[in-house]
Write a structure and sequence with these properties.
InterPro entries: Ribosomal_uL29, Ribosomal_uL29_CS, Ribosomal_uL29_sf. It is a single chain. By secondary structure, the protein is mostly helical. It has a single domain, classed as Helix Hairpins, CATH 1.10.287. It is built from 3 helices and no strands. The protein is elongated, with a radius of gyration of 14 Å.
Amino acid sequence: MKASELREKDVAGVEKELAELQRAYFGARMQKATNQLTNTASLKSARRDVARAKTVLTEKQRKGAAK
């Protein structure tokens, strides 16, 4: 997920996307813990996607509060 795609969404859309990304990251961590995860690089990308979504959400919230 690119930051530009997240910036096109409203706050509720970004929050929904963040929840989905966190759920996917949790699932990947559980697969790693049970030795079922084959692509360990997906953990890194999932973690970064969550961070990217949180950053965009914070930007949007601050922008809304400044108005």
